[in-house]
Amino acid sequence: MYVGVDVGTSVTKAVAFGPDGAQVDSESVQTKLIHPAPGQTEQDVDEVLRSVTTVLDAVVSRVGQPEFVAITGQGDGLWLSDVDGRPSRAAVSWMDGRAAGTVREWTASGVEEALFRVNGNIQFPGSPAAILSYLDRHEPSALDRSATAGYCKDIVLQHLTGLRATDASDTTMPFGDLRGGYSARALELTGLGHRANLLAPIHARQPVGELRLAGTALARGTPIVSGPYDLPACAHGSGVVSPGDGMVIIGTTLACQVITDSPDTSGRPSGLTLATGVPGSWLRAMPAMVGTASLDWVLRMIGQTTSAVPALLAESRPGADGVAVLPYFSPSGERAPFVDPSARGQFTGLTLRTSRADLVRAVCEGIAYAARHCLEAAGLTGSLAVAGGGARSPEWLQVFADVLDRPLRLPRCSEVGARGVVVNAFGALGLEHDAESWTGSEQIIEPGQDVARYREGYERYLAHLAAARPLWT
């Protein structure tokens, strides 16, 4: 039996899998987001660490000791810890917007483009480099008392095992060199060379430690494998491993990603280039900020919940009676397939006849258009898997299939992050597994009769976006 732990933004999950990849048990605990000031989002690190031991204890007490535990978690943000691995400050979330000014400065001065040429990654307010730069200016004492500026899964690993380490998936983005190490040039461009001591050692595959933390149901000495973080982990868990294949995670963010064997740092800067934990393989990722959070917002505005989405989509015809949406509702703007901290949402085509159902359908369609925009930028040419909370809605999935004009492959298990990090751990530990039984498909959603209508709608979406962007500033 194997356990994968996925430390998400608001939920921590532990999922137990049998030797054939079948899910045998799971446990989840919610964690809170803290908003100390407008535009700022943080998390209590101690609460997050407690959530990990809570879900592990629950699963182990029911199904017994696992062969190993594999850890994945939310990416980006900044998680500071002291020399003993204890949190030295609240974690700054990837959703945080305080470093928007830093990103604007880097864009105007050419730093962002120069960084993209180093490692194929754009910067946005919630990226580790931008947050680290902001704290270096405005809260240097927090960095002075820290020994590590790491990532969510890394602080969990050190808490459980005492091992200070990271893998290339998270580190690719802010300071990586695409060869598995840190780039002195990236540190120089961001003005953070004097903080290089805060970066944890990178392990070529995944860091592997042994449980040392006392007081848990997990046996001392159990192997703990860390990484990759949630985007590559979900790709592994969905069987997305061949160049050109991709996936869409319809979650809080809309994470669109495509496998490549040749990272490209030329062209217009956009998206992320992430190490996958497999040598010679990267993800061209476009993690847009326009996911289920945008739908949740409009549902709150009309006094409905997600349970009402199927009926509302059935009530409004494709095209939403002329209502169109740019779903950029995140207060920190957008980061894929373009970066603009000032990006804002917009409804058009409203009339006195517009219904609540039209508003919901327009948002669902707008998010699907954003997915097409991202996947085109990422270079999708092969099959497409889909996962995340939004994938639980067959009605919304049909909108995605029609807008994207391609079949959608549903993995057998909804917990693809936890599954994927276990699959990746097999490779890190040199263990064999049956890829088909672990990452095969459960169902295929084919495009329907509205493909032509949505093709026209997508062209209008792009024109709408081009017209709106000058207004954001």
TrEMBL record:
Residues 247-426 form the Carbohydrate kinase FGGY C-terminal domain. InterPro entries: ATPase_NBD, Carb_kinase_FGGY, FGGY_C, FGGY_Carb_Kinase, FGGY_N. Residues 1-231 form the Carbohydrate kinase FGGY N-terminal domain. Coiled coil: none annotated. One of its GO terms (molecular function) is kinase activity. It holds the Pfam family FGGY_C. It comes from the Bacteria. Keywords: Carbohydrate metabolism, Kinase, Transferase, Xylose metabolism. Belongs to the FGGY kinase family. This is FGGY-family carbohydrate kinase. It comes from Allokutzneria multivorans. The lineage of its organism: Bacteria, Bacillati, Actinomycetota, Actinomycetes, Pseudonocardiales.
